[in-house]
């Protein structure tokens, strides 16, 4: 509920609440390079840096 003349910034209270079931996401096993990123501690190796 915002008014175009209001100076108040929207907050999280203004957004509808979502549960994890409502949020669509890609399962980790379907994401490209997911296992490699996990095994390397979050560092994605490019083609040039792969061993």
Protein described:
It is elongated and about 45 Å long. It is built from 1 helix and no strands. The mean pLDDT is 62. The protein has a domain at 26-51. It is largely without helices or strands. Helix content is 12%, strand content 0%. Residues 1-51 are annotated as: Disordered. InterPro entries: DUF7989. Residues 1-20, 36-51 have a biased composition (Basic and acidic residues).
Keywords:
little secondary structure, DUF7989, 51 residues
- How big a fraction of the residues is strand? under 5%
Alpha carbon gap, first and last residue: 53 Å
Helix content: 10-25%
Low-confidence stretches: none
Largest sheet: none
Characterize the overall form.
elongated
Instruction: Using the CA coordinates, give the radius of gyration.
Output: 20 Å
Look at the structure and give the mean pLDDT: 62
Structural class: little secondary structure
The tally of strands reads 0
Number of helices: 1
One letter per element, helices H and strands E, the order comes to H
Pfam family, one: DUF7989
InterPro entries: DUF7989
What's the structural blueprint in terms of helices and strands?
Blueprint: H1 34-39
Summary of the model, kept short:
The protein has a domain at 26-51. Helix content is 12%, strand content 0%.
